[in-house]
Amino acid sequence: MIYDSDCHIGGQRIFDDQCNNEVMNGYSPTDGPATKRPAEGLRERRRRETQRELSDAAIELFEKHGVTGTTVDEIAELAGTSPRTFFRYFPTKEAAVLQPTEDSESMLKAVSAAVVSGDPLLRALENTWLAQIAWFDSRPEEHDRALRVRRLVGQEPTLLALALRTEADQVDALTATATDAAGADSDALTARAAIGIVFLIVRLAFDEWARRAEIGTSASVREIYLEIRRSTAAMSDQLGDSVST
Fold first, then answer.
1. For residue 139, which of 29, 24, 35 has the smallest C-alpha distance?
2. 10 in Cβ contact with 234 (< 8 Å)
3. Inter-CA distances, 50 with 119, 120, 136, Å
């Protein structure tokens, strides 16, 4: 099964020696195509700028007035555009502060392409996440914005609900991709467990990064991720086949 080889969970280990050695001992996906955004033309660049301006306006207004105290009209006005333009980019005002839909879709496409070409699911998913993490680590100008968004998500129930629902949708989509690629050998439960493990480690890594950043401690999300990953692999070793059936 695609999700039960190399970096597997179907047996007694979550990450095997080959997978651990690649990630822990110098392997880096940051040279791969997943970390390089395609060259943008003027129209695409302006589209991204408008999307960012709307998102920045939403963050600023949510911080001042809360989600319920802010309207789409106010967000559009602050960004210097119209409500009609706003809805070309975001379906709701809450969506404006979270990861753009096309970024999520790009991640899913990258994982899907790797899995379909024969890569194990865990490796494909982890490489894609590590590429995104490397991009984030290399751009300190994004860090303050990330902290502001995380604070809002922690304070606003509607944002938290949307963030959780978005992650659940990503897990569903990746599970479907994995089971489709595995064909007759598909095991949706095992695929979902594998995907859930990686998503959990990534979430914990960003949570810990944010905790340290809030107290003024510099940290790398990638290094925190690898730290948690080592612990996860160690726990898998300790568990082994100890559970009786």
1. 35
2. no
3. 36, 37, 21
Model pTM score: 0.76
Residue 36 tokens read as 């390089």
Tokens standing for residue 237 = 């070793």
Amino acid at 112: S
DSSP H helices, the chain, are 17-24, 42-65, 72-79, 83-89, 101-116, 121-137, 143-155, 157-182, 188-214, 221-239
DSSP sequence for 115-129 = HHTT--HHHHHHHHH
Spatial separation of the C-alpha atoms in residues 191 and 174, rounded to whole Å = 8
How far is the C-alpha of 178 from the C-alpha of 191, rounded, in Å? 7
Burial classification of residue 48, based on how many CB atoms lie within 10 Å of its CB (0-12 exposed, 13-18 middle, 19 or more buried): middle
The C-alpha torsion from 222 through 224 and 225 to 228, rounded to 10°, is 160
Residue 185, pLDDT > 70, answer no
Residue written as token pair 């899913």: 108
Counting every residue written for the chain, the total comes to: 245
Pairwise CA distance, residues 152 & 10, whole Å: 38
- Alpha-carbon dihedral of residues 110, 177, 172, 96, nearest 10 degrees? 30
* pLDDT, tens digit (0-9, with 9 covering 90-100), for 132-162: 999 999 999 899 999 999 999 999 999 999 9
